[in-house]
Amino acid sequence: MNGVELQRQKYAGMRTSLERLSLPFVVAVLLVLPAFSGTALLLQVTSVLIFVLFACSLNLLVGTAGMVSMGHAAFFAIGGYTAGICARDMGMSFPVAVALGVLASTAAALLVGSLSTRLSHAYFIMLTLAFGQLIHALIWKWRALTGGDDGFVGLQPPPPLQSVEAYYWFTLAACLLCVVILWRITVSPFGVTLAAVRDNPSRASAIGINVYRFRLAAFVMSGAFSGIAGILQAFFSRGMFPDAANFSTSANALVAILLGGSQYFFGPIVGGMIFVIARNLIAEVTPYWPLILGLMICLIAVYRPDGLLRLVRGKAPGVGHD
Amino acid sequence: MLITLQIVSALVTAGILFMQAAGLTLIFGVSRVLNLAHGSLFMLALFMSYAVSMQVISGPAGFWIALLVVPLAMAAIGVVVEVLLFRRIYQASILVQVLLTIGIIYVVGDLVRLGWGLTSKSVPTPDLFGAPIQLMGIFIPAYYAFVLAVSAAVAALLWFIVQKTTWGLLIRAAAQDRTMSSALGVNPSLLFTSVFGLSMWLVGVAAVLYAPIGGASPGSDVESMIEAFAVVVIGGLGSIWGAIAAALMIGFIKAFGILVLPQYAMSFVFVLMAVILVIRPRGLFGAAE
Questions:
Q1: What is the ipTM of this complex?
Q2: Which residues from A are below 8 Å from B226, CB to CB?
Q3: What are the sequence ranges of the domains in chain B?
Q4: Any residues with CB less than 8 A from the CB of B20 and at least 6 apart, and which?
Q5: B-contacting residues in A 129-148 (Cβ below 8 Å)
Q6: In chain A, what is the straight-line distance between the N-terminal and C-terminal CA atoms, in Å?
Q7: pTM over 0.90
Q8: B31-45, B102-116, B160-174: least confident range
Q9: Of B270, B278, B281, the CB nearest to A134
């Protein structure tokens, strides 16, 4: 259990002096922001918060459990669409709609996870991607329910949350709460066991850990938090478009995780902010921002993977590293 | 009548799918890297095939020159991409490997947008195959027969390479045990580069053959990636024979599924994938790890 203990210390030690100072600083900035900033910035920050929450929920799987899911956009979208449909079309109250959205994401994650977490990492990537795209296609084609490619529009948050500032406070509170819960999960015995499974599944299995069950649990939790991010997104943008479920949404979150470092709990938070800012800056200069972004991703992956992911030891069983 | 036509179209789909998936499975077999950009490179080859046969040489010879040039150009791209990028990430974590291929998806997708815009392009069937041919009492497009013949020839060629040549022996050895094969003196760099080139050549052939059937469209990258994944999941990752069997199954499911539920033909493939995963998790021909 020495390795597990070390792992736990590593996570406890993630609060380096820089992070210890920067976290309260960031929270303080977020708390005073509405007093100083205009509506446009507040909208931007709200959308960054939602993206960061999505990246953090994905990182429970990618960083802690070492499983690279390419299909989490699907759970993000299912949460948003379900809550949206419940609130707009079924006339349910906001809390009920939110609860059903989370429930739907969780159920979908359980279904996809039970099919995809049993096998090696290569299969896991292919299956999460394939089932994610299946859900994307279903949203696209089920026009009666989702509005298809016209989008699901005309969704309103409940009256107290309709102003930009109120929704900002709501998003900030929800994101902080979720991130704290995710952090607690990461440093809990459950999270430490997940890291042990990631680092050496055969050894974990030999000491009596049910590898499949832990992976599935991580997958479902991560899917549920992705669903919460999706719900926040749906009420924020007053609707949902099928693109939310597209694999590029998952890919963006993975890029954010890589930028910040998957082994730092705050990695996706920092990476998510860098990603959104970099994307917006490049997009202002050239319409061909995916080209620039893609080249940057390739260069980072090839030449600086250690600089950004110094602590990754997430070796993949069955995917070579022998 | 309809049945025969659907069988022929199923075989055509299977032939093209096989060539795509064989490349994916070959690369994974030797290097253990899952190339998520496989579909993007297929899309690039589709547009290159459009460019060669419609923009550069707009005559009846265009298709034939494309059939020769595009696969070779793709092989060259494959070699360059392997040497510049993939070679450096074989030992990296799986997240880094995935992200490199995501980066390539962005780059290729945007290059296609830059070069050919956002509209789909159609490529006409070569003049030689203008008239349908008669088979078992029904008429089928002559082009389909040609695609079938080429796919079968490519599959036979691949079988010959993998089973009968020294190169193929090294590919099989590396797929079985990379450490052992390099300990015995196999140059892994050369092997990986050549397999990447071969795999991209296959993608090129598949794309040139597919272009007159399905055209070149900007969204085809993800779509063809998912289809290639379905083939390797059902057939078993790393198995070429599994790829043949799975490509045939998917070809038939799509061709006949379209008759039942035209909008959701692809969903049947997903159902098959789920069933296979439950009853034979490593695919039909997948080896235990």
A1: 0.83
A2: 129-130, 133
A3: 2-279
A4: B38, B42, B202, B203, B206, B224, B227, B228, B231
A5: 129-131, 133-134, 137, 141
A6: 23
A7: no
A8: B160-174
A9: B270
